[in-house]
Amino acid sequence: MHRSTRNAHLLRPFLAILISLLSISAYAQTAGTITGKIISQDGNPLTQVNIRVAGTRLGTITNESGEYQINNVPAGEHTLIISRIGHQRIRHTLSVAAGQTTQVSDLTMNENAEQLEEVVVEGRNSYKTDIPSNSLRLKTPLLELPQNIQVVSRQLLADQQIFDMLEGVSRNVSGVTKNEHWGNYANINMRGSRVSPFRNGINVTAPWGPLTEDMSMVERIEFVKGPAGFMMANGEPSGFYNVVTKKPTGVTKGEATLTVGSFDTYRATLDLDGKLSQDGRLLYRFNVMGQSKGSFRDFEYNNRYTIAPVLKYKLSDRTSLTAEYTYQFSRMSAIGSAYVFSANGLGSLPQNSTMASANLDPTNIKDHSAFLYLEHQISDNWKLTAQMSYFNYNQIGSSLWADSAKVTGEVYRTVGIWDAINESKFGQVFVNGEVTTGPVAHRILGGLDLGTKRYIADFNTSFPQYDSAFVFNANTPNYYLPARLLPRFDRSLSLLQRAGTNVVTQSYIGLYVQDELRFLNDRVRLTLAGRLTSAKDSQYGTGTNETVFTPRVGASFSINKQTSVYALYDQAFVPQAGVDRNGRAFDPITGNNMEAGLKKDWVDGRWNTTVAVYQITKNNVLTADPTNPNFSTQLGQTQSSGVEFDLRGEIVPGLNLVMNYAYTNAKISKDTREENVGMPVPGFSRHVTNAWLSYRLRQGGLQGLGVSLGYQWELDRFGWFSDVTSKEPTLPNVFRADGSVSWSNSRMSVALNVNNIFDVASYAGAYYAWSKAYYWQYDPPRNFRLSIGYRF
């Protein structure tokens, strides 16, 4: 009864919107819609162009195709005010008819170098984003979407001097935390479970991967909370993050940056953007990065370089073809070097403790990815997008772990081979369109997704780093292994021959159709959608073959032009290998998300707030068979519920703020063992709040001077790999403060960031029963990064 009452409470906003929608019989249409496209002098689409309807609070910005749409424009004569950094302002007069869409012919913006210096200081701090990227397939502004989607902009990443996904990206979105892991990929948690990593709309999830994206090639990162049938169905229902890489803009420009920092950190980046043909039909973007980076722990390092060229060719005014290639190389200390082990409890060793061996060979990772995009504007209302991609990840190296540890300091370490290849191929075709049936406007999305993945690994051979004469002792460490204990891995056979059953494969095909019905001049929106997914998985010798239909129903209502409320129901599934004691194959885990929220733009859209409440239920979770503990049965269920708040944007001129808070409660709701019901699901923090406040002077003798200050605060933390034995948190609370001082003008920028100002010794880990020891990773102590940038 209690569970039913709670579910009914969460459904009330959704039911209220549906009832209001069904009660509408007629409504006088008194407003219309304006659509159009902004291009450069060379005919290329211009992004991030501000479009405002004079005398109103209506406005938007152009997307990656230079397109814009403004809804709920009162009928009559209006003037559009169009502006962009470094370009001459345009005023365009037009007439809007009630209930009609006014298509504005393409408008060309001319560059204005004299205005560039004046507006760069104002325009660089762009923490708020109004529209999703093309790779999310949605053509609806974020304010009107019935889902909590948060975007971390390139400028915010630069201001915080974030190098890759393993650093502080998670602080910028409510409820997102980073779990400790090996260090070669990002293990991001949200709404009670790991989220799936995407790149440019492609699900690149792998057993151990992908290699963390370097921020030098990243334009933005989009966090989609909860299941998202418009992108995927076979994955955790917590959601995903989508890394959007940089593309050509058609504007000739460049930027070089040099960075030095604590722990022997040296880094250089170069970003070039421009045209390869005089007619502007062939564009390019080229990013390159080199990095040498140590650690506060001895013998730990991660040296990387990245090369990312992109070419875009305009076949016609309606068709373009884009080719993108990225190569990332990482040479790092043995994977797992960041872990320390002790039998005396978590945090019982000094912060700079290490158990790495100084004379082990490095681990080398080569990560290739290639994309080919085709975009074709079929008509003014219909667009076709197709893309193919190929990923190849090659790792040759080793990993460190501990067999056991003693209270006297001895740690019995082992080093194991870890060679791996992860190869993936993907194809996508989707179409966006708009039609009208009577008083109802339809925004249509249809898509087809195909993909194959194969992960092959050899971690079958390990060597003890101890014998009767040598054992590592954390109290009196000797970091150099005797020659007789150095590993001698046999790589004479191919990886496939060495892997044995350590092969994970997946192939899938998905068909998705969505209709967003828009009523009452777009004030009321109802989303009806469904995805049919056929997925075949094979993991370590066992496999599944599932065909699952997942529905999606959402509703959104604009209270006024700046405020909307929404409700959503969506599903996802996770294939499960294995059989029960009767030989029956396990059904997939099904995840159901019920969500409701309120979104609001403030002060002419300068900043935005989002409040969301959700409940995710995962059914068919494996639990111990009460009649035979050697088998599992599908009687388990987990629930994750919570509240999220996000604020981002420019509060007053020059003052930008990102602030968030999330309450998360993830627990076991069904189990064959009654004592497990109510126990927490590992890997989340019950309370998480973060903020980043940045102020930059816009005039006077100190124009361009900026100061930033932020914090990260996690309370009631549960380790992600801990055994569930109590409802009490397993990790201490963490508070960390960071800040920066910077200066910039149209050409130069200098920034000094100080992280962990109060030098807090925070960590994450758990008790590992197999080793009969505690393991954990410390976060870095106080450290700095100093960067100098030049734009040309």
TrEMBL record:
<keyword id="KW-1134">Transmembrane beta strand</keyword>
<keyword id="KW-0998">Cell outer membrane</keyword>
<keyword id="KW-0812">Transmembrane</keyword>
<keyword id="KW-0813">Transport</keyword>
<keyword id="KW-0406">Ion transport</keyword>
<keyword id="KW-0410">Iron transport</keyword>
<dbReference type="GO" id="GO:0015344">
    <property type="term" value="F:siderophore uptake transmembrane transporter activity"/>
</dbReference>
<dbReference type="Pfam" id="PF00593">
    <property type="entry name" value="TonB_dep_Rec_b-barrel"/>
</dbReference>
<protein>
    <submittedName>
        <fullName>Iron complex outermembrane receptor protein</fullName>
    </submittedName>
</protein>
<dbReference type="GO" id="GO:0015891">
    <property type="term" value="P:siderophore transport"/>
</dbReference>
<dbReference type="GO" id="GO:0009279">
    <property type="term" value="C:cell outer membrane"/>
</dbReference>
<feature type="domain" description="TonB-dependent receptor plug">
    <location>
        <begin position="142"/>
        <end position="239"/>
    </location>
</feature>
<feature type="signal peptide">
    <location>
        <begin position="1"/>
        <end position="28"/>
    </location>
</feature>
<dbReference type="GO" id="GO:0038023">
    <property type="term" value="F:signaling receptor activity"/>
</dbReference>
<dbReference type="Pfam" id="PF07715">
    <property type="entry name" value="Plug"/>
</dbReference>
<keyword id="KW-0408">Iron</keyword>
<dbReference type="InterPro" id="IPR008969">
    <property type="entry name" value="CarboxyPept-like_regulatory"/>
</dbReference>
<comment type="similarity">
    <text>Belongs to the TonB-dependent receptor family.</text>
</comment>
<dbReference type="InterPro" id="IPR010105">
    <property type="entry name" value="TonB_sidphr_rcpt"/>
</dbReference>
<feature type="domain" description="TonB-dependent receptor-like beta-barrel">
    <location>
        <begin position="339"/>
        <end position="757"/>
    </location>
</feature>
<keyword id="KW-0732">Signal</keyword>
<dbReference type="InterPro" id="IPR000531">
    <property type="entry name" value="Beta-barrel_TonB"/>
</dbReference>
<dbReference type="InterPro" id="IPR036942">
    <property type="entry name" value="Beta-barrel_TonB_sf"/>
</dbReference>
<dbReference type="InterPro" id="IPR039426">
    <property type="entry name" value="TonB-dep_rcpt-like"/>
</dbReference>
<keyword id="KW-0675">Receptor</keyword>
<keyword id="KW-0472">Membrane</keyword>
<dbReference type="Pfam" id="PF13715">
    <property type="entry name" value="CarbopepD_reg_2"/>
</dbReference>
<dbReference type="InterPro" id="IPR012910">
    <property type="entry name" value="Plug_dom"/>
</dbReference>
<dbReference type="InterPro" id="IPR037066">
    <property type="entry name" value="Plug_dom_sf"/>
</dbReference>
<keyword id="KW-0798">TonB box</keyword>
